[in-house]
């Protein structure tokens, strides 16, 4: 029996198509990207997180001379938020990335597989979907309405 999985997403050509809060999240993620520590890849990523109480936190990728010891922007930000506000729900996550010397043609940067898995953990824990946005440096944005849309057949605690 053949089955299909479909996901829907929104595409924004530039920031004029975003709402005020979405533009704020984009700006915060871009500002965080400026502080990324990425001397090895020269690929800078910033992330911002909107909580249900309206507060916004941000972070960036942190690399290491021992390569696997670094961490992506999404997990750096998410783990800090979860460590400090374990009971506050996450409403939206915005990721923006690109090479240090970015080019007009650089596309939106989607979260890596490991970050998707980490994000799923918190989406499942809070029993409420998280809007996930990922963007290029030129403000071209993709939005999915839940992290799980980006990770079909995800593994979570229900299997343990
Ligand atoms: N990176 C992120 O921070 N997030 C992503 O979604 C993709 C990749 C970082 C990891 C590494 O520091 C650099 O970008 C190049 O892979």
From TrEMBL:
Signal peptide: none annotated. Coiled coil: none annotated. Residues 20-158 form the CMP/dCMP-type deaminase domain. This is Cytidine deaminase. The keyword Ion transport does not apply. GO terms for molecular function: cytidine deaminase activity. It holds the Pfam family dCMP_cyt_deam_1. Keywords: Hydrolase. Belongs to the cytidine and deoxycytidylate deaminase family. Its EC number is 3.5.4.5.
């Amino acid at each position: 029996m053949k089955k299909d999985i479909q996901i829907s997403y929104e595409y924004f050509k530039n920031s004029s198509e975003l709402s005020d809060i979405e533009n704020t999240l984009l700006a915060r993620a871009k500002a965080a990207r400026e502080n990324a520590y990425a001397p090895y890849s020269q690929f800078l990523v910033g992330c911002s997180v909107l909580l249900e109480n309206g507060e916004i936190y941000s972070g960036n990728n942190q690399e290491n001379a021992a390569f696997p010891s670094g961490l992506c922007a999404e997990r750096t930000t998410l783990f800090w938020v979860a460590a400090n506000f374990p009971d506050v729900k996450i409403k939206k996550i915005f990721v923006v990335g690109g090479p240090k010397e970015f080019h007009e043609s650089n596309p939106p940067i989607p979260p890596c597989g490991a970050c998707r898995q980490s994000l799923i953990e918190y989406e499942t824990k809070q029993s409420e979907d998280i809007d996930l946005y990922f963007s290029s440096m030129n403000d071209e944005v993709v939005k999915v309405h839940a992290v799980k849309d980006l990770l079909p057949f995800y593994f979570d605690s229900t299997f343990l």
